[in-house]
Amino acid sequence: MLRFKHYEVGSELVLKIALPKGSLQEATFALLKRAGWDFRVSSRSYHPTCDDPEVEATLLRAQEIARYVEMGVLDVGITGYDNVRECDADVHEVCELLYSKATTKPYRWVLAAPKDSGITGPNDLEGKRVATELVNVTKRYFQEHGVNVHVEFSWGATEVKVPELVDAIVEGTETGSTLKAHGLEIIDTLLVSTTRLIANKQAWRDPQKRHKIENIAMLLQAALNADGLVGLKMNVPREKLDAVLSELPSLKNPTLSPLADDKWVAAEIIVEEKTVRELIPNLVRAGASGIVEYPLNKVIY
Fold first, then answer.
1. What would the pLDDT profile of 23-37 be if each residue is shown by its tens digit?
2. Which of 88, 107, 134, 202 is the most buried (most CB within 10 A)?
């Protein structure tokens, strides 16, 4: 049974955070660990443990998180912007977190119909049926276009319902590959959604909780900033410094430090990991030695 834990006013800080259960769970736990919070949970539990005694976590379906955060049952949560819009939750958006279950692309909710159906826009669906998991957003979309349609909730596998059961669908996608595989084409985009850190407005006004939330937001974004980056350290003879620096990516200024031997300097720089396979051999040929590549957990600009 899912239970929420409550704490008395005036007790030590405990920030109640909602984490998404399901497809986004693994990526969220991995991001939080890189940010500095290690959450662990058994397969049947809804209450992960955390190595931070000031944080109390609950696992929920992402679609439910915004509603519970708005009510104040939970202080803060990680969920999609689409879920906030669907329940029209009145919450404070702390920051955008550009990650997802599969790619770094935003999650798009699109209107899709069978190829050669003659449907080229929302007006072509007047009086027809549309299936979706994002019912409220879809209804508002057609209302804004002045189109009367029957919007029905889909419990999943929405793409297989056209054209036998419905005329079109509104479905979430990152790549569009599943829609294409089912013979559907995208007609319009209703909403572009990314993951957000949201907070209850009262919790955000609480100085102690806000400080904690801001710390979490800062380090989550720092962990995302570090994606795809590595650090490089190297020793460079002063006489070959210009040649080595010329091999470094433009707009990247390395940190230079003197060594005990004044004929050498130490250089350190952050670069995109995908460039290293070409960069390191070029640095060696230019005169650098003692090159060390190391991973980055967080980068704060």
1. 889 999 999 999 999
2. 134
Contact 205, 150 (CB under 8 A): no
What is the third-level CATH fold of 229-295?
Alpha-Beta Plaits (3.30.70)
What's the CATH number of domain 15-103+195-225, 3.90.550.10, 3.40.190.10, 3.50.50.60, 3.60.130.10? 3.40.190.10
| Mean pLDDT confidence for 66-92 | 97
In this predicted structure, the answer to whether residue 96 has a pLDDT above a threshold of 80 is yes
**Locus of tokens 């319902």:** 161
- As annotated, the residues of the chain forming the CATH 3.40.190.10 domain(s) are 15-103+195-225, 107-192
Q: Domain 107-192 adopts which CATH fold?
A: D-Maltodextrin-Binding Protein; domain 2 (3.40.190)
pLDDT tens digit string along 242-293?
999 999 986 578 999 999 999 999 999 999 999 999 999 999 999 999 999 9
Q: Structure tokens of 112? A: 């899709």
Question: Residue 101: its pLDDT value, please?
Answer: 62
The mean per-residue pLDDT over the stretch 56-79 comes to 97
Q: Would you say residue 2 has pLDDT above 90?
A: no
Task: Return the residue matching tokens 């397969």.
Answer: 43
Place of tokens 């100085």: 207
